[in-house]
Design a protein that fits this description.
The chain is mainly alpha-helical. The chain has 13 helices and nine strands. The chain has helices at about 1-15, 20-40, 50-60, 65-85, 85-105, 115-120, 130-135, 140-165, 175-185, 190-210, 215-240, 245-265, 350-355; strands at about 275-280, 285-290, 325, 330, 335-340, 345, 360-365, 370-375, 380. A hairpin with a 4-residue loop joins strand 1 (about 275-280) and strand 2. The protein is globular, with a radius of gyration of 42 Å. The protein starts with a helix and ends in a 10-residue tail after the last strand. The relative contact order is 0.07.
Length: about 400
Amino acid sequence: MTGLLEFREKLKLFYSKNEFFILPILKFLLAFLVLNTLNGQLGYMTQLDNIAIVLIVSLLCSFLPMGSIVLFAALFSLAHMYALSLEIAAIGLCVYLLLFLLFFRICHKEAIVAVLTPFLFVLQVPYIMPVAMGLLGTPASAISVSCGVVVYYLLLTVSGSASTISTMGAEEATAKLRLIIDGILGNQEMFVVIAAFAITVIVVYLIRRMAVDHCWTIAMIAGVMMNLVILLVGDLMYDLNISLLGAVVGEIAAVVVAKIIEFFRFCVDYSRTEKVQFEDDEYYYYVKAVPKMTVTAPSKTVKKINPQRRTGAAPGRTSAAGARTVSGQRTRNVTTERISTGQERTAQGAHRDEGRGQRPGTHRNDARTGRSVTINSNMTEENTDDYEELF
């Protein structure tokens, strides 16, 4: 579990650092998939069924707000309806306007849900959306999910009636209108799905807001069971021919996605729950505190060690000016002269030390070898003809 928590923190940190690049890429991919799906399901206007146009529009959506994907998806679908029949496009426009007035009045921040719901229907996993919106949204999210269901069944009715509409003439406009309107209003499956999804959103929201342990897990399981029961009851009542196997697989996928959402949004440690009671002048407070499961992402600290720079000539080499470098320190040679008593006198070091007000330093005399080395705290002095390093 610690590894997963570290991965989550690293992922959050990566997203926060690169949000400026990641968000446009995600919007581009979503717009590309949605528009390609529309062209594949409808595709009546050949001018729009072009990968170059889809790429250009998707690139444009990546720099615009998320609602632009909804706008371009609606325009693409209306254009395909218009290529099929003007009457069909008029009906589609009226439906979109009604949904727009209802949707953006209440939950305009969830515009992308109206696009994702039909897309998930095409992928055969629409049951993910009501459970996910129950965990992340509010009871008003039931309206956005219901709008997405209406859009899907509108497009499904148009694509299913396209062969019949294409054989009708222009004088049969009334018949075309009646065909589409009856197909939408008489679609009992659509109303059953709307009821199931709306109730699921509300049930999941109410349970996950309760102050009980593992409320999110209970909410997602209860929502999945509620959704499945309503669909089965509707199938028995109206003979909808809903695939039981497909519904079960879709509900399992919904639980998996819901657990992923819970891990990133509501990961808590119920074993360390604390209950606190206190009061003030007006109220008594009973507080249940559940700590979040967090871990600090490991960070690597790189310590750079720079080698000591050497200045001057190489060690052990004497420059032309009479100076040489020993172990990274520049020293200066001092010429001494031999006197008859075996003692030596430093020509430069003594006068320098006296000028500084310090002791002349420590002298070592060697009458046998005829060499003299003066060691100072600040300077090393040697004979230029015969010297040795003292370190």
